[in-house]
Amino acid sequence: MIAFASRTGNIRYIVSRLQLPAVEIEEGRTLSEPYLLFTYTDGLGEVPQQVKRFMERNGRYCRGVIVSGNSNFGHQVFGGAGDAIARQWQVPLVRKIDMRGFADDYEAIQHYYEQCFRKEPVR
Ligand SMILES: Cc1cc2nc3c(=O)[nH]c(=O)nc-3n(C[C@H](O)[C@H](O)[C@H](O)COP(=O)(O)O)c2cc1C
Hints:
By secondary structure, the chain is α/β, with parallel strands linked by helices. It has a single domain, classed as Rossmann fold, CATH 3.40.50.360. Helix content is about 35%, strand content about 20%. It has four helices and five strands. Strands 2-1-3-4-5 form a five-stranded parallel β-sheet, with helices on both faces. The protein is globular, with a radius of gyration of 14 Å. It binds flavin mononucleotide.
């Protein structure tokens, strides 16, 4: 499962290309299974407020964070939301993506997702 927040549509676009199970973060949403968080970056390298609130509810099920930012903001704050989440919640930063990213970004996400949520074979 991917839980995503998208304000201007970049992440929504990426998620639509991935063909992985995904839910959009909404106020009060509670998840009861592990997921990867996919967030944009706000302010100057900040975690969006709605994502902060989501993590307060659901942080314990987060297995990694993917972040989209805009590298024009400068390397100090590019994708800073991903760095902040990874640090605070002690989860891997799976991928930092510039805007809508490229095919290799999508492949990296797909690969991590499969590794992370691969079902063990039934014996
Ligand atoms: C007000 C505002 C502040 C932003 N601040 C940052 C920032 O500090 N660092 C960064 O990498 N991107 C920043 N961005 C860029 C977005 O994170 C980036 O465009 C992202 O792809 C948006 O995803 P979305 O279209 O799914 O909402 C900012 C965008 C806006 C509108």
